[in-house]
Amino acid sequence: MISAAGVAPLRLALAVLATVGPAGGCVADQERPATSVDALSGLPIWEGHAPEVFDDNIEPAAVGFSLEGPSPRSDRFLRERAQTADVVARVRVSTVTVDSIGEQSTYHLGVHIVDAPLATPRVADRAFELHIRPTSRAFGIAKAVDARLRGLTFIAFIRRFAGEAGEPEFHWHLSPDTAEVTAAVREAVVLGELSSP
């Protein structure tokens, strides 16, 4: 039995679903490339399509490098990130450290969830260490912004993958902490829940 207060949001969600169609609300199995799974850990392997979605990247608009970033609804991976991430939440960078070996540097961002997650988390952790290696897409931004990343907030999409020897490692994407991104994420999460069996 749905309460009277719950009817309007349900009607809105169903109207959106009817507009975009069942495949538009989720990443349909036939559209999503199969993900290889590590036999030891049972976690997906970060290869093929996965590095496009969880690309270890910080969007330039999220650090003020671009006043007008593209609309979140034009991000072709936002819906898939929102529906497949282990954690989708607003996070704050609490620490920024750098390891250097010769001329190679790796940044480590300590982030923690600051509000209720935007989707039901699949891991209990509320704090994460995100690695930015020289090969990471976010490396240029990390190098340019450096310690000024501390204190910034983002909408984070974080997912566990099988690392070396099956050990879990996180891959991620950081979007601007804006009302527009938050609304697009909430919409994607609702559509995914409505279309799941």
Features:
197 residues, alpha+beta, 6-stranded mixed sheet, 5 helices, 6 strands, disordered N terminus
Side by side, the strands of the main sheet go 1-6-5-2-3-4
Shape: globular
Task: Tell me the radius of gyration.
Answer: 18 Å
Number of helical segments with 4 or more residues: 5
Helix and strand topology:
Blueprint: H1 4-20, H2 50-53, E1 57-58, H3 78-84, E2 87-101, E3 104-113, E4 127-132, H4 139-145, E5 153-162, E6 168-176, H5 179-195
Helix pairs in contact: 1-5, 3-5
Describe this structure in words.
The chain is an alpha+beta fold and 197 residues long. The protein is built from five helices and six strands, in the order H-H-E-H-E-E-E-H-E-E-H. It has a six-stranded mixed β-sheet with strand order 1-6-5-2-3-4. A hairpin with a 2-residue loop joins strand 2 and strand 3. Helix 1 crosses helix 5 and helix 3 packs across helix 5. The longest helix has 17 residues. The N terminus is likely disordered.
